[in-house]
Amino acid sequence: MKKIVLALAVILSFGLIPDVQAEEFENVQLELRDYSEIEVPSGTFIPVMAMAEISTAVCNEGYKVRFITTNDLYIKESNVIPKDTYIYGYIEELHEPVVGTNASMRIKLTRMVYADGCEIPMQGYIYTSNGNLIGGGISEPVKWVRMPHYQARFHYVNLSLRPSQERKMGVHTTIQSGSQQIVVLTAPIYVSHTLIN
């Protein structure tokens, strides 16, 4: 019995028995669309809307945030970032309020998800003219001081108010739910997927 099994194994290993799976199949080639990547350049602005309130009073660094695009973004004839695309990110930097300065935060955005579920990585921030830092302004003065302005030509004194040098405790910074924001890309996005209606 052992000799029969050994002989069968030798015959199979040398290919003396015809291979049943060696049938010829047609060369099936799927037709793929002729589509190349579209580059969305660095520095592009994308209008978005906040999906939930984001506040320095209740959020910490690393807090996950979500925005939704409010307009279609076209490059040439291609809609590369359609309306209602979700953009996800997190609070990268957060500063608590102190005397003289309001709270501030910087929100980094890392990926966008199309309506059909396709996910594309990205690098960007919520844009502000202050180096993408949201908030961080000077807090209100403790009091206003009257300051005289002498007008020599007209011989009268005009009193105006100026802020004192002492400042109040800063307040927390909040992005309201539904508020319009702008995303600025810090690196190009390469889009090879568009939605098909």
Essential attributes:
7% helix, 15 strands, 197 residues, mainly beta, Lipocalin, two-stranded antiparallel sheet, 41% strand
Give a short synopsis of this structure:
The protein has 1 helix and 15 strands.
Report the C-alpha radius of gyration, rounded.
32 Å
Unreliable spans = none
Could you give the order of strands across the largest sheet? 2-4-7-8-9-14
Task: Write out the CATH superfamily name of the domain at 35-138 and 169-191.
Answer: Type IV secretion system, VirB10/TraB/TrbI
- Structural class call reads mainly beta
Arithmetic mean pLDDT: 84
CATH structural fold name of the domain at 35-138 and 169-191: Lipocalin
- Amount of helix: under 10%
The 3D shape can be described as elongated
CATH architecture of the domain at 35-138 and 169-191: Beta Barrel
Write the layout of secondary structure elements.
Elements: H1 2-14, E1 38-40, E2 45-50, E3 54-55, E4 64-69, E5 73-75, E6 78-81, E7 86-95, E8 104-113, E9 119-126, E10 134-135, E11 144-151, E12 156-163, E13 174-175, E14 180-185, E15 189-191
Antiparallel strand pairs: 1-15, 2-4, 2-14, 3-13, 4-7, 5-6, 7-8, 8-9, 8-10, 9-14, 11-12
